[in-house]
Amino acid sequence: VCKKHHMVCLEVMQGCVCPDWASLTLGVFVCQACSLLHRSIPHISRVKSVQDTWDASEVELMAAMGNNAAKAKYEQKVPAFYYRPTHTDCKLLREQWIRAKYERNEFEFIEKQEPYSAGYREGFLWKRGRDNGQFLSRKFILSEREGALKYFNKQDARDPKAVMKIETLNATFQPAKIGNPCGLQITYLKDNSTRNIFVYHSDAKEMVDWFNAIRAARFHYLQVAFPGASDEELVPKLTRNFMKEGFMEKTGPKHTEGFKKRWFTMDDRRLMYFKDPLDAYARGEVFIGSKENSYTVLAGLPPSTQGYHWNHGITIVTPERKFLFACETEAEQRDWIAAFQRVINRPMRPQEYAVEAHFKHKP
């Protein structure tokens, strides 16, 4: 058992270390956080601390299986597109990963993966209304053949309320923001502007199946779009979490207007701001390019800045103009600058120049 320090947690390979717990039923070592998830499925997994007293039979059981053998058994057929959670992901994703492996044996029997691998999925999700903020049941259809995710305002409606092309589709779990443990934020581009949709389902498996179905559709789309690319190159492009979100204050292009509090989302190279975190459309979007293309981020605001604002300013310099923001705390200022710096330090991909050109020609 002392050999545990040479391993990492079996469940979440990125970031989980020092597995101080073990599942006696499954014969695997896990970290404390994952042990709590294992406790939630006691009919599958019985956990014990490595600090407790172990009898010989328990040690023999662990030696007979171990993390490598368990991984080979329970993860033998994980699809390339299936999301493997990290230790920082929401509880829903981590718990459903464990249940998919040990409770449903989804990665031992390919036929059990049909809910997210078939290329077509339809069902009902609770969707937040754009104007009234109420969540109402809406029919959703995801079709790889049509290259789109659609939803309908009425069950018998022939025409969809929205058609979201798989090409620009993204999904990220946002339980705290949406106020539901299964809350999923779906984004897509409409006329090259970002549109947000907020949905949830009462069944955790159903919601994670939708998430992985979207990833599967994106994976197969990208395989066609980039025929020479490897799975390792495509998987990071399937879905993405936002680099940073939070409130800042901003002023207008002339820098003479008052500062207004807005919710900001940094999504890849798009910095968007909203009046409310759950708004369907952004009030504005700013393209953040690379330092090679004359984009820089500076702490503080120009001395000539007018009007009341929070104390911790940020200036983003683009080839066209300067954008002025203010953070409430120094910690928030530091985190935002770090996020902007990561984007600016990354060279632009060829397709991003077309996005930049669109932003420059916006009225």
Low-confidence stretches: 1-6
Q: Could you report the average pLDDT, rounded to the nearest whole number? A: 91
Order of helices and strands: EEHEHHHHEEEEEHEEHHEEEEEEEHH
The proportion of strand residues reads 25-35%
Q: Output the radius of gyration.
A: 23 Å
Q: Alpha-carbon distance between the termini?
A: 65 Å
CATH class call of the largest domain:
Mainly Beta
Record field, number of beta strands: 17
Structural class: alpha+beta
CATH homologous superfamily label of the largest domain: Pleckstrin-homology domain (PH domain)/Phosphotyrosine-binding domain (PTB)
Using the 3D structure, state the CATH architecture of the largest domain: Roll
- What is the number of independent domains? 3
The helix count comes to 10
Which fold name fills CATH's third level, the topology of the largest domain? PH-domain like
The profile of the biggest β sheet is: 7 strands, antiparallel
Helix amount? 25-40%
Adjacency order of strands in the biggest sheet: 7-6-5-4-10-9-8
User: What would the principal axes of the Cα set say about the shape?
Assistant: globular
